[in-house]
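Bug report (template v2)

What were you trying to do?
Predict the complex of my protein with adenosine-5'-diphosphate.

What happened?
Run completed; filing so the output is reviewed.

Input:
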Amino acid sequence: MTARLASAFLLLVLLAAWEAWCRLGGVPALIVPAPSAVFATLWSEIATGRLWPHLRITATEMALGLALGCAVGLGIGILLAEAGFLRRLLHPYIVASQVVPKLALGPLFIVWFGFGMTPTVVITALICFFPLMENTLTGLAQVDPARRELFRMLGASRLQTLLRLKLPSALPVILAGLRVAVVLALVGAVVGEFIGGRAGLGASIIAAQSVMDSSLMFALFIVITLLGMVFYQAALLTERLLLRHHLKG
Amino acid sequence: MSIEPATDGFVAIDGASFRYGTEPPIVDRVDWAIPRGAFHCLVGRSGSGKTTLLKLAAGLLAPDRGSVRIDGSALTGPGSRIGFVFQQPTLLDWLSVLDNVLLPVSLKRRPAAQDRDEARALLERVGLGAFGERHPGQLSGGQQSRVAVARALITQPDLLLLDEPFAALDALTREELQDDLLALCALHATTVLFVTHDITEAVYLADRVAIMAASRLHHDMPIDLPRPRRREMRYGQPFNALCRALRQAMDEAP
Ligand SMILES: Nc1ncnc2c1ncn2[C@@H]1O[C@H](COP(=O)(O)OP(=O)(O)O)[C@@H](O)[C@H]1O
Ligand SMILES: [Mg+2]
């Protein structure tokens, strides 16, 4: 509790220092706007209702990309973990595909899918896919051999072993991958909009930049940060709920 | 008790050998018979191949040579007639204690109310009646071992195999669990093969104790203490004489 109070207090101190620096140091508002100006802009964006459609679009892209990327990542992770032949065949390609900077594919996706949400969702999904697949593979490979033997002793089928032993055992590792994916999904959605978005928080930043409105850009940074924190907290909450009975380690 | 020829036992192990890969055999030409309803113990130093022999009896491993037969038919793999208690409790921490006990049933079919009642009754018998809704992480090591024993017994196996199940427990808890195990096995006349490295445990539990050393079965010794076994027996002269004899036999084994 004291630690939280101290953190909040530190934030106030930093904001005050920033404000003082802008006012006393004569920093041009175009380079670094004062916090008071940023909050005024943020408030007017909220009050006029201009912010909400953009927030909704970015949150939707993030959620869709995350859901799609995680579902495919989980599915492929399971497939590769269960079929050793496929794993040896495909894993080098999947790793190679991750070295390709996916954001660089943005312009190509605009050609394929047109402007709008689709290319951004696809980029986000591609970015989220890897941590989920990798962690699913790792988690499924780490199942305690004694428990495997127990399931063999109990005559469990392969599907039963997967669903009732391997996936629950791997859940902590898989959910750690989800947490990484959430952070990456925000990057994917915002930067995806930089490239091909017409609307959304990332597209708004580009629009603000074109009119040199630094305080709007800072206001959007704040909104993006808060959005990321909401998603991250949701991931943490999911994790705590699903793992409440899992032992540590 | 007379020495049964290998072919007559409920469990009949005939000349069974097993090696992991190309190493020397870990189980070497073992012959052993366990009559129906008998309680046999296997003692030996760690690394002598006890666990491997137990896995052969469970059907988790197949012998390279020789055979393992249960009730006259050759063992081809693990089956629901055999219960196995591992050295570690190996409970599933995301399931409740009751669901852990029901695991062998729920892998076969959806557990009925009757199965749940049976699981509760078993938990009651191992002194965990009030713990069914808890999770394994909330239990002590001894309580977890009790759950593992209850889980092995829920399908009422004809044969129960245990691999040093109480080795990690303190002496008092171990003695309690030994009494619980004897009572539960007497209930359905379960045939038991119990692996341990503890001489007093073997003498207290068994009708017969075999010694394993360097992959081979060396010596077996009948234990003619009356049943049911009682705690006071541990301090009696016959019990101590048997422990001493067993110890001596182990020292003589290579
Ligand atoms: N999966 C395995 N692969 C190779 N060697 C093994 C394996 N399991 C056990 N062994 C070897 O077999 C020997 C006997 O092991 P084990 O049957 O576990 O003995 P015990 O239960 O009496 O301690 C040990 O020397 C061990 O190194
Ligand atoms: Mg062992």
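What did the reviewer find?
Chain B touches chain A at residues 58, 60, 77-80, 82, 84, 86-88, 90, 92-95, 103-104, 107-108, 135-137 (CB under 8 Å). The first strand of chain B starts at residue 11 and ends at 18.
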